[in-house]
Amino acid sequence: MQLRYSFRLYPDAGQQVSLARAFGCARVVFNDAVRAREDARRAGTPFPKAGELSTRLITEAKKTVERSWLGDVSAVVLQQSLHDAETAYRNFFASLKGTRKGPKLGSPRFKSRRDTRQSIRFTANARWSITGSGRLNLPKIGAVKVKRSRSLPTQPSSVTVIKDSAGRFFASFVIDTDPAADATRMPETDRTIGIDLGLAHFAVLSTGEKIDSPRFLRRAEKKLKKAQRELSRKQKGSKNRAKARLKVARAHAKVADARREFHHELSTRLISENQGIAVESLSVAGLARTRLAKSVHDAGWTAFVHMLEYKAQRYGRTLVRIGRFTPTSQVCSTCGVKDGPKPLNIREWTCTACGTLHDRDHNAALNIEQAAGLAVTACGAPVRPGAISAQREETGSHGFPTGNRAA
Question: Which end of the chain is more exposed for a tag (fewer CB within 10 A), N or C?
Answer without folding.
Answer: N
